[in-house]
């Protein structure tokens, strides 16, 4: 059995597995793993998955994947939150044949909404208390609704339990937090800090331009995102991609529909180019992204 899926779908499944992995020493999968396997395997026949799998094989294999792909370390003492488990199961039941983008539960961040965390395993540290992340997992020992924030630019900094609604101010790290309104998250030399957005025609770094502007790859200057048919420096307005012509000049072209020839995923409307067949493919349902 192997995992072979587009990055977003694969990341969603891997993180879901992390979230539903059992405490070391348990022999039986937790109820959410069984229920998730049921939701996934019930949906597969309705979703035109390219690979047909017998129901019994699907359920038994999917239970194992959700249960044991990433287990919490033996010394870790966290408490399972059954209410959150039910939330994750409902998210997959409601998903049907949708993609990872349609999932109502943000598995990569343990969120139901921007300010609503849902961790399947929780600790007891309260707001403002020192905290620790659980190595090789997406968990920490903060209570439900909080997360362990560590300044990403300072690996020696002590973590503190914070609310996911907290925003970063100007000059503060935005590696794991949203910037406050009116600020942009700038990525420079591995550092991510909230800064004031840069205006049209001003020097820029990636992520610092104001709304509707892009930072030129060559000019390092903010400018309006070019539209289809206009010259580009790497990025185009929505619906276009930057590509060279026979003369070596770059311009924006319209993204391609499913079945069109491609070399890069950025060329496709779906964002997915089959690199073996070299054609744009549709967005695969999340429940089909497991390969048995």
Integer tally of domains: 2
Structural class: alpha+beta
Structure annotation, total helices: 4
> Main beta sheet, described?
3 strands, antiparallel
Provide a short characterization of the protein structure.
It is built from 4 helices and 19 strands. With 292 residues, it is of the alpha+beta class.
Question: What would you say this structure looks like, in words?
Answer:
The chain is an alpha+beta fold and 292 residues long. The protein folds into 2 domains: 164 residues, no CATH class; 55 residues, no CATH class. It has 4 helices and 19 strands. Helix 1 crosses helix 3 and helix 2 crosses helix 3. 33% of the residues are buried. The N terminus is likely disordered.
Notable features of this structure?
single chain; 292 residues; alpha+beta; 3-stranded antiparallel β-sheet; two-stranded antiparallel sheet; 4 helices; flat; disordered N terminus
List the helices and strands and how they pair.
Layout: E1 2-3, H1 7-20, H2 31-43, H3 55-68, E2 79-80, H4 82-95, E3 111-113, E4 116-117, E5 121-122, E6 130-131, E7 147-149, E8 159-162, E9 167-168, E10 178-179, E11 184-188, E12 191-195, E13 213-215, E14 222-224, E15 240-244, E16 250-254, E17 273-274, E18 279-280, E19 290-291
Parallel strand pairs: 9-10
Antiparallel strand pairs: 1-19, 2-5, 3-4, 6-8, 7-8, 11-12, 13-14, 15-16, 17-18
